Amino acid sequence: MYPLPKLPKHLKLRLTRHVIIHMHRNISKYLDKDKSSKAIRSKFMNYFINDYNHNFVRSSPVVPLHDSSVPFVNAGMNQFKGIFLGTQTALHKKVANSQKCVRVGGKHNDLSVIGLDGYHHTFFEMLGNWSFGECVKKEGIELVWNLLIQKYNIPKDMLYVTYFGGDASLGLDPDIECKDIWRSLGVPPERIIAFGAKDNFWEMGTTGPCGTCTEVHVDRLGYNNRSSFINKGLQDLTELWNIVFIEYNRKEDGTIEPLPQSHIDTGMGFERLTAILQGKMSNYDTDLFSDIFKGIEKICKGVPKYRGQFGENDWDHLDTNYRILADHARMITVSLADGVIPDQNQKLRRIMRKAFLVSETCFKTEGLLRELSNYVVESLGHVYPELEKNITQVHDIISYEEDIHKLLRKNSLNEWQHLINEDPRLANLDIVESPGLTNAYKEIKSLPDNVIPPKVAFKLYDTYGIDEEMLIKLSEALGMKLVRQDFKQELTMAKLKSRGKVIFNQNIIINQLMKENIPQTNDQYKYQYTKEEDAYKFPPLQVKLLKVVRDNVLLSNLACNVECDIILDKSNLYTQSGGQISDSGVIRFGEASFEIKDTQKVNGFVLHRGILKSNDSIMLPLDSVGSLEVDKRFRIGCMKNHTAAHLVNCSLKHIKSVTCQKSSKVTSKYFTFDVGIFGKKLSAEDIKKVEAEVEKLITMGVDVATYEVDSQELHALDDVVYIPGETYPSTGIRLVEIKSTDGFLSREPCCGTHVVNTSDLEDFCFIGMQSLGRTTTSLHAVTGYRAKLAKNNGLQLLQDLHKCEKQLKKYINKPDVVNTSIGLVKEKLKYDIDSDSILPLTIKNQCLGILSDINLQIKEMQNNLIESEIKLALKKITDGMNENKFIVHYLECSKNMDTIPLHKATKICRNIPILVISNVNNVIRARCCVPKKLRNEKFDAEKWLSNTVGTIIESGLSNAKDQDKAQVSNLKSKKVHHENCEDLLRMSVEAATNYARKHLK
């Protein structure tokens, strides 16, 4: 397994085939001669791929998998960021595609204007072409111009172009070269306009690749010169195509630096192009939206048709809501199909709730968004096959989220209205859109000085889901001050901490290590292990002691018997990441050994925590050389469990329609897998199916292959399973693939360590399952010898239960004997998942079922015993053996029971007074009933019980509210000392008997 192989030939061939297959699908299958959106898209692809030898690259998912600086993919260039930064080599020098884009946050945020105009969208398609490694401006500009003029036949007199006019703060001069190229193509000087960095310097986010750009704008009104209105936000004079010359990288401090190579990145909004070519003033009037509008009209019976009105003409906001719903349906469907989960993406959840609200309040139809997702798939599925493939996932999540929305709306509206009555300033805030507003308001309403501190603002964001826009609205409504910059800084710090990054100015040790130029730890050796003759080999690694850390101080030597952290030049131990816990191990320095119990990786430095042990009290100086050995048994246990976690993840996806991994924890003894399930919860039958599939794969002995890929190669592969919200590196991605001959395929990016064949797992079973909320289930499982241990424990427990069943028949009148055995079984059902008393979940559930049956039988036996005793006492009265016309009885059977239902005893005698007493584990209870016709001034249930048993054992009554205490009365349970128990019972019976004889008439 060392060194880690690059992507193998069969996968590389697969990637090549994938490009060819999808290229032809997109540019050929739907080719026609009209101006439909399908034909327009096809003409773009044909032009670049067939005419100018560009390679097709599929659209990446709408959430960046390798970049945490942007919330969504907002341009076609996002997936090529590694190429622009020089960390990757382009697979092809020239490429073209149609990229799915979402703009709802960050630098490019169009959410607030959706529906108000005809050209802004949360989701849109970006047609793009790229040239990597060469920034030949003339060629890039000519390709754009020729397509627009010669292929799409857009009149030149409708077009304007802009170029970068320079920016002193960036140290950049005007791009005169670009201006001259446009002139050489015949564009009149008055239609070539210079703009500054605000309009003609493009960047993907606050940091990253960027550069000057030139844009093509289109005037939809006619041929008069309106160059002075460019970039003024007019709906009829808009940007059409942007050609970016990627030559710089924006750093964290805001400055720019040249990139290793220059590139050309162009992007054209497909919706705008379609509107222009179809002669529409609004993108919403094109066939990209018209079918969705027709779908709304068809589903919502009686709703007026879409009229295409804006502003004052849309007096009832119906058309605005049409546009909002159609736009959001596209964004939601595409996002869900790409694996975005609302639980972990509050922007998506907010947009979904806005769509639900519009559906409910404007179109009066539940389930509308779910139905509209079908229209979106019909429109875009031929371009993006993942929409068709994942439609069930889309449906299930929409249905689930709509149910949650209805519940929140029902529960929150009343309370919010009450708060509005108290504080009318809240009236314009939408509680349905942001259900956390109630708690947020309560949190800040009493803050001093009417200031929302950044830490409190972050709590509102993190705990109650109040985003920045709603924070501003809330602060303005209440007249409170919110410093947005301080809040953003707090948010940035939290994000850095969540990614495991240390803020340098807050970490003295890291600063000092860097100041002294201590090299970061080379830990690639953690993956260097082999399997030979059915045994795993972990070669020892010669290491050098570089630094000793104790109590945040760097020491010059390593002392014995003192816990500390040490930094080595290299390491073969795994540090916690990807859910897998850190390795343990030992470094042998001659006769001394440093026993490592934990490791932690901080900014590239691996801290090995442990204690130096030696027969002599030695002091090891820096630069001492030792041999680092991995705890083999511990590591193999982790490897087995991590591979099993991948098998479980894939198996669950086969069995349940929609699942997503929330988190995992992999240890040497067990693994925990938290999975989100949208739809029916996991059943016992589901657990059996997953276990059966994993066990089959173990028996088949499927190879576990690990490859190294970059983001380009990863994006081109099908059926890759990602963790929602996870950010992966753009290079050096470890891809773990488990592929069987019968169609099973698990393919996940993973930094953990794995076995080389599924047979090494030996055995598998689940040992626990826990619900963590509406959608999340936490599963616990084991492999290897611990799975065998669990199954042996389970078989033994089943045998014990079968003995209990036999005892039940043998000791039918002595349930206490059976209860003792059952108690032992119940204790065995309570275990810690890392203990040796673990049980298979299937057997545990089976045992619980058997116990339930036994308990029912015991209850029936107990009821029979109670009934027998009372009937015998009643018979003595009816046969004249007892002259009393009442019953006072101590239930002998109670001493053999855990609980006793006294009402079972009293209900047998409805026509005569009865008082029964029980003793369960020295806890005395009593109950009595007196028929109404037999009560008198001195004799009723309450008086009878309180003046006798209650007085003797010194306990009060606990009568139910709906009962007549004169007719039915219960004594509060009272624990008594076992030595006094018999005497108290005898005295109680005598007193109750004498009281009834005296006062019952």
From TrEMBL:
Which residues participate in Zn(2+) binding? 642, 646, 750, 754
Which co-factor is required? Zn(2+)
Every copy of the Alanyl-transfer RNA synthetases family profile domain together lies at: 35-793
Q: What class of enzyme is it?
A: ligase
Q: Which domain of life is it from?
A: Eukaryota
A Pfam family matched by this chain, by name?
tRNA-synt_2c
Give the InterPro entries listed for this entry: aa-tRNA-synth_II/BPL/LPL, Ala-tRNA-lgiase_IIc, Ala-tRNA-ligase_IIc_anticod-bd, Ala-tRNA-synth_IIc_core, Ala-tRNA-synth_IIc_N, Ala-tRNA_ligase, Ala_tRNA_ligase_euk/bac, Thr/Ala-tRNA-synth_IIc_edit
What PROSITE patterns does UniProt report for this protein, alphabetically?
AA_TRNA_LIGASE_II_ALA (PS50860)
GO CC annotations? mitochondrion
Q: Name one GO molecular function term.
A: ATP binding
Q: Which SUPFAM superfamilies match?
A: Class II aaRS and biotin synthetases, Putative anticodon-binding domain of alanyl-tRNA synthetase (AlaRS), ThrRS/AlaRS common domain, Translation proteins
Q: How is the cofactor bound?
A: Binds 1 zinc ion per subunit.
Q: Look up the record and give one Gene Ontology term from the biological process aspect.
A: alanyl-tRNA aminoacylation
Keyword tRNA-binding in annotation: yes
- Which catalysed reactions does the entry list for this protein? tRNA(Ala) + L-alanine + ATP = L-alanyl-tRNA(Ala) + AMP + diphosphate
Would I find Zinc-finger among this entry's keywords? no
Describe its function: Catalyzes the attachment of alanine to tRNA(Ala) in a two-step reaction: alanine is first activated by ATP to form Ala-AMP and then transferred to the acceptor end of tRNA(Ala). Also edits incorrectly charged tRNA(Ala) via its editing domain.
Family from the record: Belongs to the class-II aminoacyl-tRNA synthetase family. Alax-L subfamily.
What the entry lists under PANTHER family is as follows:
ALANINE--TRNA LIGASE, CYTOPLASMIC (PTHR11777:SF9), ALANYL-TRNA SYNTHETASE (PTHR11777)
Assembly state and interactors?
Monomer.
Q: What is this protein called?
A: Alanine--tRNA ligase
In which organism is this protein found?
Pyrocoelia pectoralis
